[in-house]
Amino acid sequence: MGFLDIDKVTKIYPNGTKAVHETSLSIEEGEFMVFVGPSGCGKSTLLRMVAGLEDISQGDISLNGKLINRVDPSERDVAMVFQNYALYPHMNVFNNLAYGLKNRGVDKATIKEKVYETSELLQISQYLNSKPAVLSGGQRQRVAMGRAIVRNPKIFLFDEPLSNLDALLRIKMRLEIKKLQRKMGVTSIFVTHDQVEAMTLADRLAVINNGVIEQLGTPIEIYNNPHSVFVAGFIGSPQMNFIDAELKNNTLITEDFTIPNFLSDFNGNVLIGIRPEHLSPSKKGEINITIDLVEQLGSDNIVYGEMIGGKELCFRSPGNIGFNLGDKSSLEIVENKFYVFDKNSGKIVD
Amino acid sequence: MNNKYSQIFAHLILFLGMMVMIIPIWIAFASSTHENVAILSEGMKWGLGDQLLKNYSEVLNQTGGFSQEITATKMFINSFIMAIGIAAIKVIISSMSAFAIVYFRFKLATPLFWLIFITLLVPLEVRILPSYQIVSDLKLTNSYTGLILPLVASATATFFFRQFYKSIPDELLESAKLDGANSWKFFIDFLIPLSKTMIAAMFIFMFVYGYSQYLWPLIMTTSEQYWTVVMGMKIIFMEGYEGGNLPRIAERFAYIILSIIPPVVVIIFLQRWFIKGLIQTEK
Which pLDDT belongs to residue B279? Predict the structure, then answer.
């Protein structure tokens, strides 16, 4: 039993759409869990079921050992930060923070003390008398966080809170959220479709696709050992390269090259997955490409090229090496780091 | 240059429009300050006369009507009570019914809303006999309740409130829920303050609507104690036609000028919110 237990939870909307399918998950106290997946995969629905904003069609959710399926959202002691912040436009920042406490019958002196303490922590003290409309995106974000923090809830829920911010601010707030969560030690669930956010924030990561958790683990585990084509393609940037191949008698055969001595019982059509950072130009490389696009990031170059069969491939190389369009290059797989997936099921082949 | 001319032109049009509105009121006001004889012999007046105080105090204090029981002052009070009652209750009822329709997702919400909307097609004048029957059965004729109650349901206001509530993002409700607000609290703490400009605008509309009711008070009241300004306009000071006296035209003008004042006062008080409510929402 964890702190938050999600047990075989299913969500079916009245129109018959199945958003979440028999999902089970256990979150430890103080853990930072991130749900990541493409839009419409059910990650937000799962979060909203924890918050109590969606009914649970089947299954159980319990918090701190207590079943909360039928508990009203206001009594679950959870706090949520919404994508558009949902600040109360007619109340000033102080009242935005204080509203939840007032409704819980906290006495005025305590409310004041807690609001000041929280606003100190988030550096929004000077805005306590302002309305949300005059605040900048980052400040609104902080107020939204403050509203969650001030109540000292059992669990924080974040529903893509950074997606309305510009790129720089997003990175800054990402760090702040992480630091804050560490400092306060509050169990948190963070929903995002951004794999960088997911990797950087998470203690543990749940990659969700089509309403099921495809893989659960620490970010590094998931990066190093993706269990399926979906997870491998979703985590990592630029995306992993996938090359069609046939696995026959322990040998991988593609149109362009072969990899011998891949020991497996499996025979049939497969996909070879190679991360861009695990490809490097080399004289003895077997993968031949013609370079057709170079993205210069300064520290790195992301180089795109076409294989003989016309398949697009991409690799990462240090920024100080130049490439010319139209050049031929041969690549080798660094340290034999590649993955093989069953083409039909999408599962990894050992 | 072009810009300047178009500005002058625009202001000219506005000025003409203003004149069209103001001149009749001015003539009524100017005429109300003369003696009856002067108006009868010389026609309406552009300039001020010297009978202002006399005419106005006569209007406010002299009893009129068939049985000489009512003064204009009393009629103003009646009209004011009726208009305030109608406006206030209309705003309360329609904001609450819109709240129910938008936020409580019961099955019949949409059909019910359209049912309310359809009542726009059945104004009071059309249903005046059944309405009278009901009010009379309830023994509410000759009472403020009877004047106000049949007019308090408003499809228009319900519709406006519904549209406004629908534009409020769902997250606000969800966030409030997580902050421990029940639906009543959400209504009081969120919807009311967010729609206050809307409420002001609706209140003005409904006040003017209530104030200018003619047919309903005419049918409803048999006691002169409940006469209202608009219906009284025709009846009061009518003795002039029957006796050998002069028609009391100056007093009638004074009465008309006085009857304009209450709606104007309400608008002046609420206009700041009223304009905001029409052009923007506070979000």
Answer: 62
Domain end marker among A184, A205, A230: A230
Among candidates A73, A90, A100 on the partner chain, residue whose Cβ is nearest the Cβ of B194: A90
Within 13 A of A120's CA, how many CA atoms are on the CB side? 6
pLDDT of residue B278: 61
Same domain, A38 and A92: yes
Residues A295 and A191 in one domain: no
CATH number at B163 reads: 1.10.3720.10
pLDDT digits (tens, 9 = 90+) for A53-97: 998 999 999 998 889 988 888 888 899 999 888 899 999 999 999
Q: Specify the number of domains making up chain A.
A: 2
Query: Which A positions 209-268 lie with beta carbon below 8 A of chain B?
Result: none
What is the rounded distance in angstroms from the CA atom of residue B136 to the CA atom of residue B133? Answer: 5
B175-228 pLDDT tens trace = 999 998 888 999 999 999 988 888 888 898 899 999 988 888 888 888 888 888
Which structure tokens are listed for A306? 């076409």
Are both A197 and A271 inside the same structural domain? Answer: no
Highest mean pLDDT among A329-343, B39-53, B85-99, B106-120 belongs to: B85-99
- DSSP β-ladder status, A251-253 and A258-259: antiparallel
- The total number of residues written for chain B in this structure: 283
The model's pTM is: 0.80
Rounded Cα distance, A322 and A34, in Å: 38
Spell out which residues of chain B touch residue A86, defining contact as CB-CB under 8 Å. 169, 171-172, 174-175
Q: For strand A287-296 and strand A300-307, is the pairing parallel, antiparallel, or unpaired? A: antiparallel
- On whether residue A309 sits in a domain, the answer given is yes
Among B164, B174, B175, B192, most A C-beta atoms within 10 A, so best to mutate, is B175
pLDDT in tens, A252-307: 888 888 888 888 888 889 999 999 999 988 888 888 889 989 998 888 889 999 98
Interchain proximity A53–B282, CB inside 8 Å? no
pLDDT value at B44 more than 90 = no
- Domain with A243 in it: what CATH number? 2.40.50.140
* A83 interfacial to chain B (CB closer than 8 Å): yes
- pLDDT for B282: 46
Distance CA B280, CA B283 (A): 9
Mean pLDDT of B83-88: 94
Integer Cα distance of A171 and A167 in angstroms: 7
CB contact under 8 A, A88 and B180: no
Q: Does the residue A96 lie in any domain? A: yes
Cross-chain Cβ contact A84/B180 below 8 Å: no
Task: Give me chain B's average pLDDT, please.
Answer: 84
Residue A134 belongs to some domain of the structure: yes
Domain that holds residue A285: 238-342
Give B191's contacts (C-beta < 8 A, 6+ positions apart). B95, B99, B165, B168
Our CA-based measurement puts residue B140 at a distance from the nearest CA of chain A, in whole angstroms, of: 42
Mutation target vs B (from A48, A63, A76, A88; most B CBs, 10 A cutoff): A88
Q: Per the domain annotation, does A348 fall within a domain?
A: no
Task: Give the residue numbers spanning the domain of B125.
Answer: 2-279
The last residue of one of the domains, among A230, A246, A281, is: A230
Is B178 within 8 Å of A74 when comparing Cβ atoms? yes
Name the DSSP class of A239. Answer: P
